[in-house]
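Model it.
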Amino acid sequence: MMLLLLLFLLLILLLINYWINDRELLAPSFVFTAAFCLSCMWALAYQVQWDLSLHENTFLVIFGGVLEFSLVTFFLKLFRSTSVSDNRTNIDLDNDSNDKSVISFQKWKIAIVIGMQLLAIAYTVYEVQKIAPAGSLSDSIYSYRSQVISPTASQMLESLPRLLTILRSFTDASGYFFAYILAQKIIFYKRLGVIELVICSLSIVNSLMLGSRTGAVALIFSFLIFLYCIYKKSMKWNNQGNFGTLIAVLLLFIVVIFSFQALASLLGRDITRFSMGEYLSIYLGAEIKNLDVFLQSGSFPIHTGFFQSQTFIYVTKFLNKLLSIGEAKYSLNLPFLYANGYNLGNVYTTFYAYIYDFGYMGIPVLVGLMAFISEYVFEKVKGFREMNTVSISVLIYGKVVFALALSFFSNKFYENIFTMDFVQLVFFWLILRFIFGQDRPKGVRLRE
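Modeled.
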C-alpha cells in the first residue's frame, strides 16, 4: 500500500509540475518527477516477486526529495530576476538571405576531428586488449568493464594513459557538438548531415569501447534534447503539440528498451538467464527495493571520511591525486542485492549517496543544490539567442537533463556534472565553437 500511495502522490506532483511550468516537458522538476514515477511503476509490477513492502523512511526520502526538488525549482522560477519572455526573440526562417544549401565545413578541419576520433578508438582498443586480454574484442571489453565495477579488482586495474583520456574526452565533446549541428540542420534544412552523422557515430563507438552503454545513450538522449530546444526556440517556446511530442518520446523509449538487452549481449555480457521483463526491472525498478533495503541496514551517515565520498567521488579522486592526500583508487560501495532469488543489481537511486555520506540531512542540501543548478541552466536555455551557432548552455543542459532523468537509477548528477571530465567537455566545446565558428551558416537570422 505504501508503494502504491507513493506512486499516486508522485503522479499528482507530476501533473502539478506540468501545470506550474506552463506545460513544459523539459522543465527540470517535470523530468525529475517523471523519472521516479516510472521507477515506482516498475517496482509496483515486481513488488510480489521482490517481497517489496516499502518502509516509511524510504517513502519519506523519495517523496520528500522529489517534493523539495519541485519546490526549489518553482521558487527559483518565480523569483528569477529576468523574465524569460523578455529574452525571447523571433526567428526569421524565411529571410531571403537564408541559404538552404548544404552546410559545408572546411575539409581539413573535419579531417582532423575524424582523425582524432579514429585514433581515440584504435588506441582504446589497444589499451583494453592489453589490460584485459581475451579471445575477442567483446570479451576483452566485458572483462575490462567487470574489473572497473569490481570494488576489489578496480584497485589493481591499470589506468588508461593520460593522452588517451584526453583523446576520448575530445571524441565525446565532438559527438555532442556535431549532434547539435545535426539537430540544427534537421530543424532548419529538413535534412540529415552525413558529416555530422559520421562524427556522432564514431563518438558512440568510442563510448562503447569501455563496456558501458551510458555514454552512447547519453549522446542519443542529448541529441533529442538539442532537437527539442532548437525547435521550441524557433516556435518561441509555444507548447502546442505536446501530445505529439509525448507520443514520439514513448515510441523512442520503447525502441531503446527493446534494444538495451541486445546491446548488452553485443558488449559480451551474459544476459541469457534473464527474461526481457526481469532484465529491464533491474534497471528501471529495483532501485526502489535496493534503497529500501539500504535504509533499514543501519545508522547513517556511514563515516569513511571526506576523501572516500560517494556523492562527490570524482571530485575527491581528483583532489586525492592532485594533492596526494588520500587513496586515489577507490570505488563506489554498491553491493549487489538479491530478493527471493531475483537479481536486483547494485543501484539505489540518487538518494543513496547523499545518505551514505551525510545522513538524512544530506538530502535537503544536495537535492536543493541539484534543483537550483538545473533550473538555473534551464532558464538560460529558454533565453538562448545563438540560433546560427552552437549554444553552450543547450549543450550543458543536454547533460543535465540526462542526469536528472537517471536520478531514479543512481547519483548521475554529481557523478556526471561535478567532474573534471565535464570541465574538459565544456572546454572542448568552446574550442570547437571557436574553430568552426567561421564555417556556420549565416542564413538563420534573429529579428530584434
